[in-house]
Amino acid sequence: xxxxxxxxxxxxxxxxxxxxxxxxxxxxxxxxxxxxxxxxxxxxxxxxxxxxxxxxxxxxxxxxxxxxxxxxxxxxxxxxxxxxxxxxxxxxxxxxxxxxxxxxxxxxxxxxxxxxxxxxxxxxxxxxxxxxxxxxxxxxxxxxxxxxxxxxxxxxxxxxxxxxxxxxxxxxxxxxxxxxxxxxxxxxxxxxxxxxxxxxxxxxxxxxxxxxxxxxxxxxxxxxxxxxxxxxxxxxxxxxxxxxxxxxxxxxxxxxxxxxxxxxxxxxxxxxxxxxxxxxxxxxxxxxxxxxxxxxxxxxxxxxxxxxxxxxxxxxxxxxxxxxxxxxxxxxxxxxxxxxxxxxxxxxxxxxxxxxxxxxxxxxxxxxxxxxxxxxxxxxxxxxxxxxxxxxxxxxxxxxxxxxxxxxx
Length: 409
Description:
Order of helices and strands: EEEEEEEEHHHEEHHHEHEEEEEEHEEEEH
Distance between the termini: 68 Å
Cofactor: (R)-lipoate
Shape: elongated
Domain Lipoyl-binding: 1-76
EC number: 2.3.1.-
Family: Belongs to the 2-oxoacid dehydrogenase family.
Number of helices: 9
CATH architecture of the largest domain: 2-Layer Sandwich
Largest sheet: 7 strands, mixed
Region (Disordered): 84-125
Radius of gyration: 28 Å
CATH class of the largest domain: Alpha Beta
Helix content: 25-40%
């Protein structure tokens, strides 16, 4: 029987949320068959089976947050008739190897314990239980060992990942009250999250897109020298059935061509700016799972009907949680049409390395003077935040002027 743990899904993403299991215990799977779908901070990813065989155990529930290296399934690998007939010896199961390693590590630690004069060292056992991602926590795997603690005057051995111990300490969770779901009852991060949800009714751990948004906003707040400029576009020339989002995308493309300084990336470490010739617009999409910002690449090559088709397909993919990592990458400027829900003006948050984000508010009616006569018109409020380290106020104002001119045409 072989154990399969969560692999590294790329881009330094240590955590994933289980979105959906596609197999149950007892199911027979083939190599590369999709067994579950997870959501990282970037996108949803389908995880294939690394072996063919029967699912003997399944670890983690939908909604659980798991780390790289956490046990997912144990598979009783199929042995072909040819292999069985030839008498070829099969490699030892991973579980046996883990047991040997654990025993060896325990003996080494036990030897060190006898040489130690501190009482706490004598009460501690040492067992390495697996690889631990160091992306989220500054923990040396060579220092990971399982200790024993006393609770209610009874000695109780707790086996837990170091990241789970750190998390439990932050959340105020007593590990003695948790039943681990990992191999041999090891307490995982997801077990601590579940205990926290039960301990504090009405609270929940941020997951998926919401977790990613929290990290991105914190990063932006720390790094961006943000300035917001506002303006209004008078929509007297618009038809009654104008597609607002499509017009906004086209207007941003035109403004980027007129003033390209806002269509750029900025690297504060090297103090370099990359001004892009192509326009890749990230379009903020609100969903029940959180905020997603898929990117319409080469938006300057899209016609109006192409933009609308892209929006419809992308929104449908987000609702079905079927959006790939590549669809969220390489944006050069962002659009948020918050006015579709509510709001007139805002201070949108720039997402580094980008240097600008355009926000559109709710269309309002205004009275304006035309040839000395009052006239009611529709006005579209616009808010743009830019990184003042990479853009001058003049460049931002010229961009906004070009944006308004295009919308009013």
